[in-house]
Request: fold
Amino acid sequence: MAQSGRIEFGAMEAVAFGRPAAETVAEEARRRGAERVFLMVSGTLGRTTDEVAKVQQALGNRCAGLFDRMPPHTPRQAVIAAADAAREAGADLIVTLGGGSLTDGAKAVRLCLANDIRSAEALDGYRPVAGPGGALGPPPCAAPAVPQVTVPTTLSAGEFSAISGITDERRRVKELFRHPRMMPNAVVLDPAVTVHTPEWLFLSTGIRAVDHCVEGFCSAEANPYADAQALHGLGLLCRGLARVKADPGDLDARLDCQIGAWLSMAPIASGVPMGASHGIGYVLGAAFDIPHGHTSCIMLPAVMRWNKPANAARQAMVAAAMGHPGEEAADVLDGFIAGLGMPRSLAAVGIGPEHFARIAEAAMGTPWVPRNPRPIPGPAQLREILDLAA
Reply:
């Protein structure tokens, strides 16, 4: 039977790359007629660099407010605090400058503004629901209306999806909120702003983007559109990350990494699910506060080893795209991650076997584990993967 499928394109309108962030943000504000621009920024970036000040200066009197207190993993209470501040500022455009937690936070803030959500508990009513075909989507609600422009400083690439990962502090569980209009309207990729990002964070989130490429390409639900971008993105990331490690001031390499991260999101954006590396990673992040870049560094090689009986041919193409044809993809990934100086085992981040049963049980409830290319019927199989990553 001929291959068939349907790809839905997101609501993103533009990606600007290789241009200075401050002037590009100001151009986007003028283009949209925004007069009350609300900034959500990295507090560290604001205190230790002039990047936030440059954006404020470029916006001039269009800048209506600033929020710089978003913790990692985007906790609900911080989302509500940011939404309150944006509402008080009368925001007609939200601009983020920082990492993935800020990006996801702004997406959630826009949902809160559209639906007058004013408490962490009220977010319970906006969890995804299964549609007629079983696909998860938003419950009946108002679509986010305030636009978002994002300037990322890391490589997790959440700015290219219509999903916001938010941590419910009550249960220490990270949940995915979805709405097709939640995707940022524009993204600005400026390699110069990333030089302030700590090396471990830039490189580890780069591996997160590699994880998007690899799990997307190796999925049993892959499609040709996503495949082409994932493989090219993987090549850009592998070459670019190695060059940034060798020379942190190489802006061309940093831009290659940013473009590779952008391409890495083609699978997710076109409906291809991630697998067990992402599923387990959500639990490690929410329950153990492990940065998501590090969870990919630790889990991706182990998941690839466990999945090989289901997708060996695809894994061979991954190894070739990384410049190592004929070698085991899991070994190539592990060696590459080691060369960047990233953690490669659960023990390296203080997680021992006594936690594996809890992690396995929780990961079964994530959206990605049930769609892993090699079926995972229960926690026992996840324990096998965790043992490989121990």
Observations:
- The first strand starts at residue 14 and ends at 17.
